TrEMBL record:
Domain spans labelled PTS EIIA type-4: 1-124
Species annotation: Paenibacillus sabinae T27
Cellular localization per UniProt: Cytoplasm
Keyword field contains Signal: no
Record's keyword terms, sorted: Cytoplasm, Kinase, Phosphoprotein, Phosphotransferase system, Sugar transport, Transferase, Transport
Listed NCBIfam families: EIIA-man
Signal peptide (UniProt feature, chain positions): none
Primary localisation category: cytoplasm
GO function terms (MF aspect): kinase activity; phosphotransferase activity, alcohol group as acceptor
GO terms for biological process, alphabetical: phosphoenolpyruvate-dependent sugar phosphotransferase system
Annotated PANTHER family: PTS PERMEASE-RELATED-RELATED, PTS SYSTEM MANNOSE-SPECIFIC EIIAB COMPONENT-RELATED
UniProt name for this protein: PTS enzyme IIAB, mannose-specific
InterPro entries for the chain: Bacterial_PTS_sugar_comp (IPR051471), PTS_EIIA_man (IPR013789), PTS_EIIA_man-typ (IPR004701), PTS_EIIA_man-typ_sf (IPR036662), PTS_IIA_man (IPR033887)
Amino acid sequence: MIAVIVGTHGKFSEELLRSTSMVYGQLENVAGVTFEPGESVSGLVDKFKAALETLDWSDGAIFLVDLFGGSPYNAASRIAAGYENIDIVSGVNLPMVVDVLVNRSSEHLEGLAQLAISAGRDSMKSFRSIRESQAEEEL
């Protein structure tokens, strides 16, 4: 099973995983890592390594982080650079995490990363745009 680590600025990862469990159910082989004010990127690398030690990532690991180029991304990059079976996807949101968990037993790491990106992108909707397109269809 591919391990999932959610890494974000502040407590967002903890709350995101709490919300994920409301939608998905019990989380297995998943860890959340926070990056708190005053911490260094080196300290965050240590926290990510400690999280990996608690997970089974024999099939790979995927880091879902909040900002491309932010400290969680940079820290995860330092780890991923040394492994072929670790990937990082930025822009983490609830639909992305749920989609990754639903599909991780049937997807390889590369496919899972693409699904994560699609889920994140496809989850953005405008009520007004949907309403206008439905109104046009009714005409």
